[in-house]
Amino acid sequence: MTHVPQPIVAGPGSPAISAAGSSFVIREWTMPGPYYVHVHHSDDEAWHVLEGVLRFKFPDREVDAPAGTTVFVPAGVAHTYTVVEPARYLIILTPKIDRLIGKLLDPAGVGDLRSTLGEFDTVIV
């Protein structure tokens, strides 16, 4: 029997959304980003803040993103972010960056940080 993809709809009161397709992944998160400024050379990334405040750091500025704000970071732009107030947000990323984050969050997944990032065309700035 063939698996037929189905839409995922997360309405008010639904569990946190987590969906992965062939071209992008969307996850609902509360954690901060990495402590280091980094560049994904081949992948775009975006966030939509549902609650709280995120603070994005770019080479030339910092930007606070309160609830209702969407931030898009194209491939090649150095960035990181942190949680300023307890936050709930959607992160939209490519399957490759989703795999990188999964590896970074796995205690057994990272030997050398720079080489792990390099496997996913990402570097620390």
Molecular structure report:
By secondary structure, the protein is mainly beta. Helix content is 14%, strand content 42%. The chain is built from 2 helices and 8 strands. The protein has helices at residues 95-105, 113-119; strands at 18-20, 25-29, 38-40, 45-58, 61-66, 70-73, 80-93, 122-124. 16% of the residues are buried. The mean pLDDT is 92.
Blueprint of the fold:
Blueprint: E1 18-20, E2 25-29, E3 38-40, E4 45-58, E5 61-66, E6 70-73, E7 80-93, H1 95-105, H2 113-119, E8 122-124
Antiparallel strand pairs: 1-2, 2-7, 3-8, 4-5, 4-6, 4-7
Question: What keywords describe this structure?
Answer:
8 strands; 6-stranded antiparallel beta sheet; globular; two-stranded antiparallel sheet; mainly beta; 125 residues; 42% strand
Q: How is this structure best summarized?
A:
The chain is 14% helix and 42% strand.
